[in-house]
Protein 1
Amino acid sequence: MTKKDYELVAAINLGSGYIDMSIVQIKKGGQVELIEKLSHPTDLGGDSFSQGRVGLDTMRECCRVLKDYKKIMNTYGVKRYKAISTSGMREAENREYLIDQIKSKTGLDVKIISVAEERYYIYRALRKSSLDLDRSKNFIIVNIAYGGLEVSFYENGSLKFTEYLKIGPLRMHEALSSIEHINLNYNNTMKEYFESKVNSLYNEIRGKNIDTLIALGGEVKKIMKVIEEEVDQEGDYQALDRKKVKHFYKKLSQMNVGQIADMYYLPKREAETLVPSVTILHSMLDFIETKRVIVPMISIVDGLTDRLYESSKFYEADDNSSSYDDIISSVWFIAEKYGVSKRHSEYVSKTAISIYDQLLNVHKLDNKYRLFLRTAAILHDCGNYVSLSNHAFQSYRIIKSQNIMGFSDRNLELIGNIARYHSGKVPSYKDTSYANLIEEDKVIVSKLASILSLAEAIDSSHKEKDISVKVAVSGDFASFTVRSEEALVLEAWELEKRVKFFEEVYGLEAQIKVEKGIGRK
Amino acid sequence: MKKNFSNNSEYINRELSWIEFNKRVLNVSENPDTPLFERLKFVAITSSNFDEFFMVRVGSLNDQVNAGFNQKDPSGMTPLEQIENIFIYAKKLIDRQYKAFNDIQKELLGHNLKFASVEELSEEQRDYLQRYYVEKVYPVLTPILVDKRIQSPLVFNKSLNVGVLLENEKHEKFFGTVQVPSVLGRLVEVPGEGDMREFVSLEEIIKLNLEALFSGHRVVSSSCYRITRNADLTLDEEGAEDLLETIEESIKLRKWGAVVKLEVESGVDEELRSQLVDLFELSGDYVVDINGYIDLSFLMKFTGMQGYEQFKYKREEFQMHRAFKSDEDIFRIISKEDVLLHHPFESFDPVLKLVESAAKDKNVLAIKQVLYRVSGNSPIVDALVKAAESGKQVTVLVELKARFDEENNINWARRLEKAGCHVIYGIVGLKTHCKILLVVRMEETGIKRYVHLGTGNYNDDTAKLYTDIGYFTCNPQYGSDASRLFNMLSGHSKLENMYKLSSAPIDMRRKFERLIDREISNAQAGKKSRIACKLNSLVDYKMIKKLYEASNAGVKVDLVIRGICCLVPNIKDQSENITVRSIVGRYLEHSRIYYFYNDGDEEVFISSADWMTRNLDRRVELLVPVEDEESVEKLKNIIEINLKDNVNAKSMSSDGRYMKFKGGDKTLDSQKYFQERSVKENSIDKKLFKPKYSGINIG
């Protein structure tokens, strides 16, 4: 074959209960076809949740499975792949050893992703699916993963908050299995246990009018498979009536694990987590007044392959490229929570992005950093909530402790640092947060912080004046032309002060020009 | 109803139903319309069928008895009762088999072929035999004088032996035995006079020389005998690190399983008989007296004699399906349309060609195949070896547990491994019985998968003798399902949801239940409903119950079941809407086709599975929906013609016995019909010809 009009890529997820791999074929014209889909059971989650470490047998088994997967990838000549691991490995203290073993035995680089990144990929998959959500309504997305439960609340179509609770079905089973055989009312105990853990979450959504409950995760898919006859299939998602969930819960509560396994042709390990999973759904339906549960047939692997698709040469952007909407929406939710001035943040964010875009050829940063800058700009003042005197540092601390969809811990560290240097302070090795960054990240932080700092200077009056900024770069020189009909004394002074940091980072000699004229409106 | 085959009217004992099947096999040899040598062949097949039956089924029942397990089967019989009944019916059938053989011998005599006894021979002929004995036979004989106080003699399973009662000078009795060597032909032709060709059995020649063989003893009496050992291969797979080694081990063990049946010459001396019964620790009921040559399976070889074409079935030219007639690239052919082959009437060669082309094609990335029973010099194995050597990823699942072929299978496994194939031995506890071939090819527009799904094994020899169905497709959903199945078989993955296929032991049983349930609810809603299936055995109790349920709901159910059928048809308020037909003819009926009317949106499936509990619960099997319009019509037509067959078909009555089916005005031999039709259909240029099949009559 001379020239290939397609590319094969692989996505691997080392989950708590299964190691999954999909190989997809990306064709010229942007079609994506599933070629292989594999799923192999693993004890990663069981080990991590009960002992905090992955056992030797599980490690070996993981490597063996991945070796097989690698062979299959080789058969298809797969070059690009993404291999990630979620809660199963995230919580194991010996995770680095496992990653190293995988690398040396299979050549695969596995990345442990944060809860927020996990959510990002899942939502990405969700967006790709045919499920068409009415964005004018309130809905809840619950992701029932083996190791944890993640609940996202959308109000009027935009993401308000996400809670991650370490209370997945496998964890519930591990926690309660020791009393199963001595407790006649095991299921009820399980429900009480669960509700004691999610009480605070329920308080947050109490009284909200929720129209739809969307349930994600392998466990939910298993439930759907088990009560197959009662499921309504619609495109690539299914719907489950609340009455059926209640009925099923009741039925299960009269059986033990062995009986459940026999009745539904399930391996024991899958039967074990069925009761906690149904308990979770049942409990949520107790709380949320919706007629049915929508179950999209997607998994994190679909999100990974979509990401791989986006970076392939056959990628064709569709109209719905607002893939960052949910992220930004949840960033705003945090900003509101910490009482930032929406208008100021919005203004700074827009200005920063404008400068960033005008400097594309200068900073040469990957497109994803645009979102970092935007996030840092929206949240740069959230530290005021804690302290007015060192608010920039507090902003860093708040950002760092957040759990924002799509961002890894390392990403948040970066964003926090960018925000920390928004007010003209130059990064220093005396600042531990900065000193601890790796060299590469230091440069990125500085490049973006210097832009944010200039953008913030332009609204140093917090009056959101009509100002336009034009950046021109030629050779070693850069000029920032700031134009407004209003007087810009304070702004010009701040800009002059802060541009030195910019000059140092980019190695450019910069000039600030203030001109009278029509601003951006 | 007679209680012979069952203690109730719901379920017929499977063993007795099997013996009924073997009777139908024997019936072919009793039929004067069957060519003479073919009649001999069916006599031989009856024998070898019985051997397998006793080794496995009776072996297993013996195990149950020995373990004190006395639970009744669904027909209400304990294991011991079953064994007793088996011997009663088997003995009757064996008598009938020898009668049939005698009848054939008489006819052969008319054609100058004679199975002679030594007494009938002339002096010269006897001299000839004596020379033959000294030169050829004597050197390979190992006479054993048995001292029972020390050990019992090693007598091989299914070997033919001569047992001798001996006496020394002190009038002490001894038992001696000598195996009739299997390295020599069972029949020896003696030069005769005129046109008559005469054959004498090897054991008779040995018997003439017993005195000399056991010198120092006087021969009191002698008889040929043969034992059948328990060969039910129940493996302790738990902890079996290497299945290959475990099976090699058990093949050795099989030679020494407990004896389940003893055959002796009728009229054998009582003392010799009791010596044998003691020796093999057998109950006297399990001794079968044979009036003639013991073990008639040698007749198979006899019919292979040069010449005598007039006594054999007319050699048929198996047709190349018209889709495969051109020289076009096989991948391109399958890309154009799905093709369904009806073997043996349509040649098996395209399957070989697909594997061979895949092995050579530089764009093929991977070949995956399940090999269950392959032929002696399998061209498929050769092709796979070639493919692996040229760097393709070749995955072969060799099912080592294919009964009685283990030894053969192990050889292929080793050879494939040596060539670099990824050889897998399936899943512990499950026999892999599905027949599937997957070729993954890199094409200009992307990865494309070619799949062959069949009802028969990838065996080019049996493909000429068995009726089977094979289905070629490159529909991506079948391809994806095939990949998923192989990923499961090779342990890479649990079985992910499949688009089209259903598999045992995962969801096939439920699928069948649902298909039948749908007919039931359609019937209850006053809609038309119909089930018509062709399979080899119906044993599974739950499926039978489901079919009764369908019958009671008014669903018309027609079953063409070649072998065992435990369902009892024609019982009011149970099965009055069910008919069961069996076809036993020249070719072994082997295809499985399942048809459901589905309120007009008909669904037809092919499968590797019968309705036996082992197929549905303990094996990896596939149920394949066939969607291509022409193929659907072809399958429906096969069932319809099967149901019209009034030559080789017998219909089952409620007592478990079978009577010749006498429906229809014209005589119709379904196998002949398919043969003739395939010639017609495939001789015409494809472009001009579109076959028309008459579908199933919904009545």
Protein 2
Amino acid sequence: MKYLDIANSSFIFQIGAVVIGFVLFQSVFFLIRAWREGLNIGLTREQMMAAVKSSAIFTIVPSLPILISLIAMAPVLGLAFPWIRLSVIGSAPYELMAAEIGAQSMGVDGLGGTGFAAEVFSNSVWVMTLGMIWSLLICIFFLRTLEGRVKQARKKDSTWMTVMITALYFGMLTVFIGQPIVAGGVALATTASSAAIMLFITWVMHRFKQKWLGNFAMAVSMVGAMALAILFTNTF
Amino acid sequence: MDYHNRIHRLGRISATIALLLIVSVPILISIRFNIFPPLGNLALGVATIWMLQFPVAIAEVLTYSPMMGSGASYLAFVTGNLSNLKVPCAFMAMDHVGVKPSSPQGDIISTVSVAVSSIVTIIVIVIGVLLIRPLTPLLESPALAPAFANILPALFGALGAYWGMKHWKLAVVPLTIVIVIYSLVDVNPAVLIPVCGLLSVLAARWMYNRGWVDADKEEAA
């Protein structure tokens, strides 16, 4: 059986539906539980709806790269399995890398190289899956203990905890801001444009007291900068 | 049982089920189509990945779970895409609502945020899969390619501006370190994030001890 027939078989789509269906269910369940507790501890419905709106709008554009990776992987791994992988645990760059390693460990040049047959597909499937189990395992076994330590530290000095968490967050952010700055060219221009648009929208929000713009500031900055990226690429 | 204990129980159970379901995929595929990779090759591939992924996983849980709280963490680690989607999403939501990370309110808002984000991503991908035929020429069009190739710079430019306006002092040290490092070597971001996070925290502690930074600073107008 040609491996792409396997890769695109309805069987895998069905498994996928079960896995992703569960993740959807898990998300809804947590949402409802958190919502109820939120009301219990004094958060208002408006506040939580604000979080829902903000998160929903924020998520749309950054979800697009996932689709693009799906299209990139589909010719070699079929549509069904990348669909599952990209909806759970790993991120696109990881999945591609894992798939390559899976192929190479079978002695094939890489994804799509000659000799990429059913067994190689199967190996990539296994490697991609098993590769990413650790973060979930660590959560399952150690998250509660870790949280205990964090809460202890917070009791001692909660101001510092807030600063520390913000500092950690910047540690993460700056890695992704630094990359385009060093890379230069269109990437740098896009980053700068996005920042500029965000600054402008924030100024408009404060100057003209239009708070509602806040929800869309991220999306507008992103899409605006992406459009400018096309302009920059064509101009230079 | 109070919320805190419930969330951990819920989190552990659901994360375990999710993990079992995820691992069942290759098992079922292999059984159904009778295609088993040779054990040696499989072990080699998995060991290669684990060498990087194991320390990264530890670092990620240590770095992101205090930021998001436990409820959000159990969810986020099932669906992935933390640094480029879930974590910024949760932080924006908490900021929007006006609650602090790692507070009881913050943990709730963070959980709501990550749950909604996961749901939206799943829906977007399902729509994408269903519409893959008409969508492919659009998403692969050479005219639009630069836009899609620069989504991450666009995302982090906006995030950088937004958070930099509020806490620029905390951004200086990590940003400088990152620029210096990337100018010299090409490093996997997954490795750099915890390192940079640690250095950022050390710098923040230094500034905090001198009263240069405080949790309740005013936002830049």
